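step 4 of 6: structure.
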Amino acid sequence: MTDVLAKPLSAVDRPNSYIGRSVTRPNAKRLLSGKGRYVTDMKLPRMLYAAFVRSPYAHAKILNIETRDAAQLEGVHLIATGTDLAKLCKPWVGTLDHFHGMKSPPQLPLPVDKVVWAGQAVVAIVASSRALAEDAAEHVVVEYEELDVVADLEAACRRDSPVINPDLGSNLSFTLKLESGNVESAFADAAVTAEKTFLFGRHTAVTLEPRTIIADYNPAEEQLTVHHATQTPYQFQDIYSRYYGIAESRVRVIAPDIGGSFGMKLHVYHEDMAVVGLSMMLGRPVKYTADRMESFLSDIHARDHRVTASLAADADGNLLGMRVDDATAIGAFSSFPRTSVVEGNQVVRLMGAPYRFRNYRGDLKVVFQNKVQTSQYRAVGHPIACSVTEALVDDIAQQLGLDPFEIRRRNIITQDMYPYTSPTGYKFERLSHEACLEKLPELMDYPSLRRQQQELRAKGIHRGIGIATFVEITNPSPAFYGVGGARISSQDGAIVKVTPSGEIQCLISIGEHGQGTETIVGQIVAETLGVDRDTVRVITGDTEVTPYGGANWACRGAGIGGETALQAGKKLKQNILHVAAAILQAKPDDLDMQNAQIVDAGTDNVRISLADVARISYFRSDTLPAGTSPQLTAAHHYSPQGYPFAFTNGVQGCHVEVDVETGFTRILDVWIVEDCGRVINPLLVDEQIRGGIIQGLGAAFFEECRYGETGQLENGSLADYLVPMSFEMPDIHIAHIETPTLDTELGAKGVGEAGTAAASAAAMNAVNDALKPFNVSMSQIPMTPQRLLRALGHG
Amino acid sequence: MTERVPVSMKVNGETVERFVEPRMTLADFLREELELTGTHTGCEMGACGACLVLLNGQAVHACLTFAVQTSGDSVETVEGLSSSRVIADIQNAFHNANALQCGFCTSGMLVTAHELLSQGGVPSREDIRDRLSGNYCRCTGYQAIVDAIQSVARARAAEAEPSARPE
């Protein structure tokens, strides 16, 4: 269900009015016929393939590496160790200045003296096929001396644990303390309090296309071309240039079709850095594609938090204050260039975000451990903050006998309070909690679900209804990374041009990974110019072709990239009208464009076609009045300048049935009322929301990277690590409220993470609602059957 | 290196002959030897369904099949199914419902959908979800894929028996 409100920007009855319409994706036809071109599919002339020898230990000294036998095998071109690559590549450190006091050790493509997680790449082999490279890897002998392993979060937090990075003195990477209002007196004044400890397991992105990269160094021109399945080609252009000492203008990063990313494909990976060096050593293209096991071992993981939190309320259910203690383990170092502390930072800052209490204390502790790095993955920190907050709010409601909707109604930030600054410093321009909370019960038919729940309980069937209110961070300004010294752009660029036939090309820095970037940019440009969207070609993902920009992360594509396209389109339109006015001896202001014709403004009276303006401009400029200089290419860059972030909001509902004998949970229904500002394309927005919710449900019920005591990943395959499949997933019902941001003309905010942000919170509340008759509750995800049975006393 | 052996099979209606290592999977054979990269590999253990192709008309995991096993057989990939237009209505329905995002799982989804829909009738949403349970998609909510398949089933049923057209 889609409820789109009136759009001041686009009267839908106007020709070429596309913003706000569900239109299909032109590029999807290619993917549907097996003609996608993913890096995985690419083969370059004289290309070689890399494989890696990986550490079997989570923590060990490297004593010796013996490569002689492997090097003699047919088809092997190069074997490189950490020492070899360190001669070419500078070390990098995953810290940012605005995280004061943060520590992380320097990293290199491959380790030189010790390994710090099981599965870490140690030796690179380049051969004429992947199979031969893997054959040779079996002949490399690495001698290790095992060191004590710091595997889990609890161990990493202990003072007497072995120190993974001796130069840093301890396993502590970062701490943060936030304090606002008077939290102690809030708790002293409280009529009721709720306190719980929550555990959030590690999970990972499991993109269907694994990480893959082809580095192609041409020594003759000192030029590096990288075909890279990444969300952020410009960021990698900068990194390859700086760390390998190649001129920036000679580093080209191309991101073609990408088989899923979700934040996982924007971090620096050691294998990727190694492949660049290998290509430089060989002067030939080198390709590396992670297999599924390598993906589980070396892709970033997310979450791994233990949160103890308490919430205080008065007797009427008015929330008074919240205390949060979050400890998170991030692997043996912080990821680069975005760090591994952003998730924890967002956890402690997003706690209680939908609500208006003013007393808050948040403590964050980020520690090192012998596991693969964690970092930003879809909805960074949101599911944790949302699950903790919403579970405690439900707890308070239960203690006071209030309905979950009612307690939220009493505490949300209301329309009269904007602009609003949260106790943790987030500035909300305008959110729509009331409207969302009003709409959701209607969408769910909440009263009849409650009646049905009562009836079924009498029959021994245990259904639960959970709701979760959320706030999502989108459209980040330089406040996110730039201020910390990261060379991560928060602006985007677009070049829009008229071809000689009067068609349009738009080159833009935001990328396409299936979310529909090219489609929405085409909609925006076509509407802005007044042309058919079929005539607009959008080109993305090539640092040598498209203008510089931040590309895709933190839900910024539509809001920032979309505004960039809009403003570039407006510039080009003015340029076109100036030329047309010169030809027609009219004033530009008296002209307009529709259906690729220049018309008298306010009428559909055609004066000249865009194709004729283009033809004259490009081929017969001699016929133009003197001094007319057609500029049929326009460029525009845009960076958010108002609020540091454009926050979105919404509320999700989840309906489950728990089998208290087996511990299995069936997800019956999910609903969401979501406000991402101006909806550019409802079809695509809804699919973003659904996909996001499914990922959140995966985390809630199935997904966990399970480790043994020695730091070995025990479920690194798609048979052992459970992902959500179609049969277990419900249909998802969606409604929209639209509160456009006034910081941009387009008014769009992000939507990619909203589904994931609250899905596990609503699911946990639903399960706990189902478990109410048993006086037990869950506070750990995933909520596996085993854990449910244990909670029920059967385990 | 293991000695290469000859294989000969029909792929998308054309006879192909190559010498391959016995350890080469059908998925790698299609992708690397024949450059039919529409067939993808996501897990290489038969769990994700990205590599599904038709082998003598039946959906099989190309990652669990060795190329040498298929010598003398007939293989159809998404490229062949697209050219012959036998799945054109399914592809259109996927396009209209936006039943794909990154597209990496899509070839496998289409093969499963084609096999299911070839049986005729209008499967329930639950039936469709059940049949898709060997196809992993990380991007969509699966719902649009179910919608697309159901819409094709209805359209085909209506075409086969116009009087039985649903309201």
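step 5 of 6: annotate
 - Chain A touches chain B through 57 residues (CB under 8 Å).
 - Chain A is about 30% helix and 25% strand.
step 6 of 6: archive
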